Amino acid sequence: MELGLKGKVAIVSGGSRGIGFAIARELAAEGVNLALGARSGPDLETAAEEIRRETGVQVLPVGADLSTLSGVQTFVAAAVELFGKVDILINSAGAIRGGSLLTKPDSDWQEDWDLKLFGYIRMMKEVFPIMREAGGGRIVNIIGNAGRRPDPSYIVGGGANAALMNITKALAVEGGPDNILVNGINPGPTRTARWDVMNQGLASEWGKSVPEVEKIRVRDNPLGRPCEPQEVAALAVFLASERASYLNGVLIDLDGGATRCI
Ligand SMILES: NC(=O)c1ccc[n+]([C@@H]2O[C@H](COP(=O)([O-])OP(=O)(O)OC[C@H]3O[C@@H](n4cnc5c(N)ncnc54)[C@H](OP(=O)(O)O)[C@@H]3O)[C@@H](O)[C@H]2O)c1
């Protein structure tokens, strides 16, 4: 299938590893030039170099703290300065920690929402006018099925994800007339560094081994396993492509059928 992505420019928040990196790599394989944003300079450089070597596209690594407005503005400005446009935004920088209402300190809510909730919102706010001016664009938000499955032990993440689903749909309505299509993907548990860290945390909280925790976390999943980052990437690339020209405001649960609702 010809996806019509060659020569486009994508900016990928959280592009140094995990889901963001997998999406960046797949976009690059389709000929998309990239700006990758994350905090760690060395990790970003390694990610960028790997993608350049594999695909030959241009990759701009931008070290920025995307939980701040200035970090977001620095990232977007650097991409525009080099490429002169932004066709695609992938929002994937997020690191929300588990915990319940009574155990989570106020600072955790603030810090975690500063990155995932406000970071995604600010990225969209920065690129919207650029895309509008250029006659359109694509935004893919990597959200998470915890937003549809309220869980008191992951209340900060569930709350942010529910808000992002609402905002994604609202912006799809606002962007549609300008051909800015905004969609969201709700992965279930996905095998990234986050998956390992969360399993280690749950293992000590529940007094179980990590393999036991892994089994519990996929027990209501019909496929019996976590999602792979490449599986999120395949869907994100399609949503960013010319072939997805009538998909707008959709929230796709990519969780092997674990979420049971209509
Ligand atoms: N993995 C899952 O099970 C899962 C399931 C559903 C939804 N999601 C969502 O998918 C997204 C990606 O998750 P992932 O599993 O790929 O995470 P990950 O492997 O931990 O990668 C997170 C990325 O975000 C960057 N990042 C973290 N804090 C940042 C900050 N303050 N400023 C800029 N960049 C920052 C990280 O780089 P630095 O640390 O160097 O900054 C890294 O590139 C998140 O929004 C997550 O909530 C994940």
Please count the helical segments. 8
Going by CATH, the architecture of the largest domain would be: 3-Layer(aba) Sandwich
- The residue fraction in helices comes out at 40-55%
Bound molecules: NADP nicotinamide-adenine-dinucleotide phosphate
Task: Report the mean per-residue pLDDT as an integer.
Answer: 96
N-to-C SSE series? EHEHEHEHEHEHHHE
Biggest beta sheet attributes:
7 strands, parallel
Termini separation comes to 30 Å
What does this 3D model show about the protein?
This protein is 48% helix and 15% strand. It is an alpha/beta fold and 262 residues long. The protein folds into 2 domains: 9-190 and 229-253, Rossmann fold (3-Layer(aba) Sandwich); 192-226, no CATH class. It has a 7-stranded parallel beta sheet with strand order 3-2-1-4-5-6-7, sandwiched between helices. Helix 1 (18-29) crosses helix 8. The chain is globular, with a radius of gyration of 18 Å. The mean pLDDT is 96. The structure holds NADP nicotinamide-adenine-dinucleotide phosphate. NADP nicotinamide-adenine-dinucleotide phosphate is lined by residues 14, 16-20, 37-40, 43, 65-67, 92-96, 115-116, 142, 144, 187, 189-190, 192-195.
